Amino acid sequence: MPRLAPSPSGQPLTRVAATVLSVPDASTRTERFRRFDTARVPSPCFVVDRVAIEENLRVLDQVQRASGAKILLALKAFAMWTLAPLVARYLTGTCASGLDEARLGREEFGGEVHTFSAAYGERDLAAILELSDHVVFNSFAQWERFQPLVREARRRRPQLRFGLRVNPEHSEGKNPLYDPCSPFSRLGIPRSQFHGNLDGISGLHFHTLCEDDFEPLARTVAAFEHGFGEFLDGMQWINFGGGHHITRGGYDIDGLVRLIGEFQKRHGVQVYLEPGEAVALDAGVFVAEVLDLTHNGMPLAILDASATCHMPDVIEGPYRPRIIDAGEPHQHPYRYRLGGQSCLAGDVIGDYSFPRPLRVGDRLVFEDMAIYSMVKTTTFNGMRLPTIALWDSGTDALRIVRQFGYEDFKCRLS
Fold first, then answer.
1. Model's pTM, two decimal places?
2. Are the C-beta atoms of residues 138 and 118 closer than 8 Å to each other?
């Protein structure tokens, strides 16, 4: 074991970078899901591979052990609480974006619960303070406004920690929709506005990344230290946020371990990371069925799935998800525009080509669908939420975790 330097909290600060497990690349995961018999599940259905989740978790845990950082699951990206016992074996806890996620983290996942919201309502905050270990505020105004609640919560729970989210004003994202440092961002306090009461603040939080490699993080940390380094004396922890694609092939894990260790040693703090995608990257698929084939200037295929209801990031991103055994529009002989059942004219998933003509009843398998899609589904048009299934690619065991029906639609309304 490497020798460790103790931190003020008793947690290890620095470790010698160790060889960390790698995960199978996306093509290997594709081959696994290609073996899955889609007739075993109803359509549409999210299918999550337990083996792939654990592979990702083992890598993240080794990063924790090698660097001394603590890693949290970002529930906004993956909140399949059926797997909470597995996640809890490897990660330190969860991070939440509001009351209900904080409650889910506390009740199902255990470990530490960290909560950040762009703004809190008083009633929600009172409950969040009972559920969370760290509560991060987005402005000095809210921090100061809620001091009575903070003082009372601290009296009952002396271990409760408070932080502020800062904006390093360093953009790494290519899409403004996912860039917390884009101009006029509401997320985080910019340096020019960072003046207020720091009494009781034990840590700072920043988040700049989205599906990024190590180098953008290294540049962000440099920008953070340049802008906010003078405030680090006396802080106990720093949260590096999410967007770290640690479990993607080619990620510089040794660089990450080294950066964290040096940062912790330099500032005497505990570093937290809160990736969501890295936990479930390439670990789940979405099965959909062809309902009809039509033609209007080009061949059209209507699925029992919907971009707007089941894959909203396809429209919001926008992005084009991969489909097993399908290609780019002109790659194979048979090209189709895939769309959903909803009334939205723009409910289009994208243009794909196939080696053979599609038939009504064919099952299509969309890749990398465990992240975000599962937590962002809606019942617009009364469309049923997709079934959720848990598969073990090692044993081929399958369990239908949840099926949804009319009551799930009705109970959202009044």
1. 0.94
2. yes
